[in-house]
Amino acid sequence: MIIRASTSGRGMEEWMIEGNGSLVVVGTGIRTTEHLTGNAIAWIKASDKVLYVVADLVAERVIKELSPSAESLTVLYGEGKPRGETYHAMVDRILDSVRGGHRTCVVLYGHPGVFAYPGHLAIERARDEGYPATMLPAISAEDCLFADLGIDPGHQGMQSYEASHFVLHRKRIDPTTALVLWQIGSFGDNTYRREGASNHKLPFLVARLCEEYPADHAVTIYEAAIYIGCAPRIERLRLGKLAEARVTPASTLYIPPVRKSRIDPATASWLGFEPADR
Ligand SMILES: C[S@@+](CC[C@H](N)C(=O)[O-])C[C@H]1O[C@@H](n2cnc3c(N)ncnc32)[C@H](O)[C@@H]1O
């Protein structure tokens, strides 16, 4: 039997043959009722196994309305358990469903492939085992940040890192571009905490940033609104005060460039750019 659902882009039909396992990973966006796309809705409704990880009750309710038998994967988190272990357990659970012949739809919050490791890994493993697997794009926290803070990453360029990774790998900072740091609320802690991390390691992050930026550089703690009609949290503060600020699991740090970059005259003349084009 072939299920047809109204969708754009690549047809669902070939993925929807009953008894053949398949995998589609979709995102809710940040404000589910506003951001969930028609295409994602169609896949959720047409799949016979829906597994999800979302961050709020409205998102959970919307998914349950579309697929009453949908199951949350958040039960796999454990207090103090390394998040990497949980992600692997999620991937195993997803693959079990696909191998069991289920047309499986995984729903993750935000963009399902942005700072969200299990979706990519599940797709890779499903494809390796010969199952059709794909991901649909969705609205991430960073997309909301661009809109709410009025930032165009094309203007002066942008770097974007997970905060602990950024420090652990001593990533090079270019102070002429914007810097976005994700997961500052779990900085230096790779385990899951229901209440969020204690943030007592944040001074370490601040010290690293202060190697490149002045301590009085104005930065922004950003939290996109997750419900329609609510305002985002946009808290501007001095970088040196970051460790004293309220930082939650939904906080993302935006650091604007500290100075402008200069055009390299030799390159400009080689490319034939007039001063006005630069
Ligand atoms: C595991 S990542 C998930 C990102 C998600 N897949 C996305 O597309 O936005 C979690 C991090 O995303 C960022 N984030 C999640 N919700 C957010 C929100 N409402 N506002 C700002 N940043 C958010 C924070 O940096 C948080 O620590």
Automatic annotation (TrEMBL):
It comes from the Bacteria. GO terms for molecular function: methyltransferase activity. Signal peptide: none annotated. Pfam families: TP_methylase. Residues 23-225 form the Tetrapyrrole methylase domain. It comes from Polyangium fumosum. This is Tetrapyrrole methylase domain-containing protein.
